[in-house]
């Protein structure tokens, strides 16, 4: 009825122009339309033009920038990272969302649970990235993940009392002061040998005073020979007054406590083990016939677990022997995985809310019918719930693909040191190429155009979906 | 898409399974395991937030010496000194309080402008009678997925052009950031408002028009009050989006003396000796504002998430 009144009105006001007739309504649209025209539509089109020009947009280059894009290793790295993100993230976030949504329907505290899972969406990605960077920190004293790994690994491979850090350039051989030599690069054996009733003293160097303080070391004391036993002292042969004397135990020099020692016979077999006291003394009693050496076993110097570099540049796939370009295309940085885990923490709530809404609107009668027909819960889930949720799952999946294609903040904030060159995505490259050291429009615009083309399928899908609304 | 969603659906009655072969199947068939699994997930999900809070409350020196989890066994070592120091600096350029203010100066106008203009545009698209509304709307829907990266360089050049022509170059200024955020917030905003307003009965407006009410009066007397829930969703969404943006601020405000909190955190992290006591404290401050918004308007936020699945 209202339509016909309008038509009548339009006919009676036939002399008025279309524009004047709708001026008020168009004025309502105008601010938004003009705004978007100048700051969204025009710039998007202009980016296509700029991608064909040189860096300062003064000279036409044709497709040269696109050639550069596909022949520059750092940009190929960015493509590879986007592929990694797109292959891994949308699948996992949708799966998490589905599991959370389905399971939370079965608990009484689902409101609290959902609020908790959704919460990270409102955090800035920058803040989230920085929190997770500490969680993934190398040092087990800072990073919770490495602390957890350390707790487990100590079970199997406890660090020795005198850890030697090879990464810091230390060697076990560097610890020998006097009367010792290196055996198979990992343990120290005395040069001198002894029979029952004899003594073997071993001087050590470069042992950190902090380690000794931690072990409550006391001044080294040379023990008296004991009949039927082999004894001696292992001490830190360092005296500020007699720097070159490494063979005598001088006053003020500390014993090395808690060293694990083995008594080794002439065939090289271990016959007995013991541990030094706080003064560095040891004693092997009831020693049999023959001559023996004393060995400082390798476990004393084991550094144990020193932390996994989650955010470093190391690759999950073998890359040794590959050229620059092959590496750019084929390596899978561990740091990408750490970032994807962080991103899952942020976005799982989003997926859960959407899927939960889909779940709530499912026809319960269908589920009930399936149950009455004798379907098990797992069968109901797999054969009824998931197929009925398929449209929602697809929306989440596509939305997350778009999201991940544009991933930026998290990479910029989590990549550090060696992973800065391994982890950039297209969005990061657009920023790096375009905005570091002045504005450079050419290559950056070409990447932006490619990014735009990558989201076009998603755009078309949205339009198809919304046309139906 | 815009209907409110209750968070808890009707519970599914469970039947006692006779044979249990599959782990997932077992999880799906009784409540006990669901509670345990989701309990563990909830704790895992809380870890980062809890760690952030604790790190911000620990003395600077403790950070690299022992893990934050050690505090769980001796909570007495916590202190507010980090907050005192950073807030004690006052509004120095580049400081925490200054960044907080800058974040507000950007976010509040960028949110209000989007809400206003999206309401107007939604009204025009739903209740206007001009032809081509559908084409305009579909164009706007298409714009929703345009990545901001695509527009950055031309907009920077456009700003410089404005400077050359009118002597007003928005580049490097807070209005420059706001203009960009509004432009990229509008497509989603209009989409949301248009969809919501489509549900308002047209007869209501016709009646008012018959009585001689002008378009403006129809808008603020009838449409606007009815659209308030959608308006709230949009405001929250836009607020959080702008508040948490790093890229746009970096491009348009990178060298500025006053920068938002995201840049404050980013800069602190890039320092050679990153100060985690500053980063963690700043991160908490940056997170508190959107959290307040989130918990106060959770229902509207969820609605926005549901409608905004395409952004």
What does this structure look like?
The complex is a heterodimer of chains A (469) and B (311). By secondary structure, chain A is an alpha+beta fold. Helices cover 50% and strands 8% of the residues of chain A. Chain A is built from 16 helices and 9 strands. In chain A, helix 9 (209-214) links the parallel strand 4 and strand 5 (230-236). The radius of gyration of chain A is 35 Å and the shape is elongated. The two termini of chain A are 23 Å apart. Chain B has 311 residues and is mostly helical. Chain B is built from 14 helices and no strands. The longest helix of chain B has 32 residues, at 96-127. Chain B is globular. At the A-B interface, helix 1, helix 3, helix 5, helix 6 and helix 7 of A face helix 1, helix 2, helix 4, helix 5 and helix 6 of B.
Short summary of the structure?
In chain A, 50% of the residues lie in helices and 8% in strands. Chain A is α+β, with helices and mostly antiparallel strands and 469 residues long.
Q: What class, by secondary structure content of chain A?
A: alpha+beta
Strand order of the largest sheet of chain A: 2-3-9-6-7
User: How many beta strands in the DSSP annotation of chain A?
Assistant: 9
Indicate the structural class of chain B. Answer: mainly alpha
The percentage helix of chain B is 55-70%
| Beta strands of chain B, count | 0
Compute the number of helices of chain A: 16
Rg estimate of chain A, integer Å: 35 Å
Outline of chain A: elongated
Mean pLDDT of chain A, rounded to whole units?
A: 87
List keywords for this structure.
heterodimer; A: 469 residues; alpha+beta; 5-stranded antiparallel sheet; 4-stranded mixed sheet; 16 helices; disordered N terminus; B: 311 residues; mainly alpha; 14 helices; globular
């Amino acid at each position: 009825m209202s339509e016909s009144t309008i038509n009548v009105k339009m006919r009676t006001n036939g002399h008025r122009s279309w524009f004047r007739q709708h001026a008020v309504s168009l004025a309502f649209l105008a601010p938004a339309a003009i705004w978007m025209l100048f700051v969204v539509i025009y710039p998007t089109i202009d980016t296509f033009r700029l991608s064909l020009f040189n860096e300062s947009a003064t000279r036409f280059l044709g497709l040269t920038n696109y050639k550069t894009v596909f022949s520059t290793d750092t940009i190929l790295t960015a493509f590879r990272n986007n592929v990694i993100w797109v292959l891994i993230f949308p699948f996992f976030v949708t799966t998490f969302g589905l599991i959370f949504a389905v399971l939370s329907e079965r608990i009484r505290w689902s409101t609290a649970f959902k609020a908790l899972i959704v919460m990270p969406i409102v955090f800035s990605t920058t803040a989230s990235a920085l929190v997770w960077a500490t969680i993934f920190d190398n040092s087990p004293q800072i990073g919770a993940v490495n602390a957890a790994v350390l707790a487990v690994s100590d079970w199997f491979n406890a660090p020795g009392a005198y850890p030697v850090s090879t990464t810091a350039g230390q060697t076990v051989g560097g610890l020998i002061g006097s009367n010792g030599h290196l055996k198979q690069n990992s343990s120290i054996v005395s040069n001198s040998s002894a029979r029952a009733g004899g003594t073997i003293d071993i001087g050590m160097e470069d042992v950190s005073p902090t380690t000794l303080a931690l072990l409550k070391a006391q001044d080294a004391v040379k023990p008296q020979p004991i009949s039927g036993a082999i004894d001696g002292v292992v001490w830190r042969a360092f005296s500020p007054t007699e720097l070159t004397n490494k063979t005598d135990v001088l006053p003020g020099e500390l014993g090395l406590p808690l060293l694990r020692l083995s008594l080794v016979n002439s065939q090289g077999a271990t016959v007995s083990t013991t541990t030094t006291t706080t003064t560095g003394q040891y004693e092997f009693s009831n020693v049999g016939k023959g001559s023996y050496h004393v060995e400082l076993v390798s476990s004393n110097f084991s550094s144990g677990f020193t932390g996994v570099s989650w955010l470093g540049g190391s690759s999950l796939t073998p890359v040794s022997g590959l050229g620059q370009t092959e590496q750019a295309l084929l390596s899978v940085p561990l740091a990408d995985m750490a970032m994807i885990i962080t991103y899952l923490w942020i976005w799982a709530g989003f997926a859960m809310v959407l899927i939960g809404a889909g779940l709530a609107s499912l026809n319960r009668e269908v589920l009930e019918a399936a149950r009455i027909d004798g379907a098990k819960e797992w069968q109901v889930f797999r054969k009824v719930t998931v197929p009925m949720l398929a449209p929602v799952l697809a929306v989440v999946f596509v939305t997350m693909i778009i999201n991940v294609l544009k991933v930026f903040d998290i990479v910029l904030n989590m990549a550090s040191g060696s992973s800065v060159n391994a982890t950039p995505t297209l969005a990061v490259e657009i920023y790096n190429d375009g905005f570091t050291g002045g504005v450079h429009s050419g290559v950056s615009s070409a990447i932006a155009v490619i990014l735009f083309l990558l989201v076009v399928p998603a755009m078309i899908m949205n339009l198809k979906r919304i046309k139906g609304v | 898409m815009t209907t409110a969603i209750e968070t808890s659906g009707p519970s599914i009655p469970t039947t006692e399974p006779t044979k249990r072969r599959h782990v997932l199947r077992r999880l799906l068939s009784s409540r006990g395991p669901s509670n345990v699994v989701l309990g563990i997930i909830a704790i895992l999900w809380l870890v980062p937030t809890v760690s952030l809070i604790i790190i911000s409350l620990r003395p600077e020196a403790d950070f690299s010496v022992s893990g934050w989890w050690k505090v769980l066994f001796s909570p007495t070592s916590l202190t507010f000194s980090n907050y005192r120091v950073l807030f004690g600096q006052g509004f120095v350029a580049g400081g925490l309080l200054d960044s907080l203010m800058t974040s507000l100066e950007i976010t509040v106008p960028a949110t209000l402008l989007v809400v206003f203009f999206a309401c107007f545009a939604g009204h025009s698209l739903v209740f206007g009678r001009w032809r081509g509304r559908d084409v305009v709307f579909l164009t706007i829907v298409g714009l929703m997925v345009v990545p901001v990266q695509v527009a950055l360089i031309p907009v920077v050049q456009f700003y410089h052009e404005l400077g050359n022509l009118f002597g007003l170059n928005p580049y490097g200024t807070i209005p420059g950031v706001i203009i960009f955020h509004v432009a990229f917030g509008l497509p989603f905003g209009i989409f949301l408002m248009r969809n919501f307003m489509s549900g308002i009965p047209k007869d209501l407006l016709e009646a008012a028009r018959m009585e001689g009410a002008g378009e403006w009066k129809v808008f603020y007397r009838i449409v606007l009050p009815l659209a308030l829930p959608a308006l709230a969703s949009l405001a929250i969404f836009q607020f959080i989006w702008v508040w948490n943006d790093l890229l746009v601020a970096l491009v348009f405000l990178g060298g500025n003396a006053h920068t938002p909190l995201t840049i404050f955190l980013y800069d602190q992290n890039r320092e050679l000796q990153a100060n985690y006591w500053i980063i963690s404290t700043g991160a908490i401050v940056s997170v508190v504002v959107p959290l307040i918004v989130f918990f106060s308007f959770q229902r509207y936020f969820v609605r926005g998430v549901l409608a905004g699945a395409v952004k």
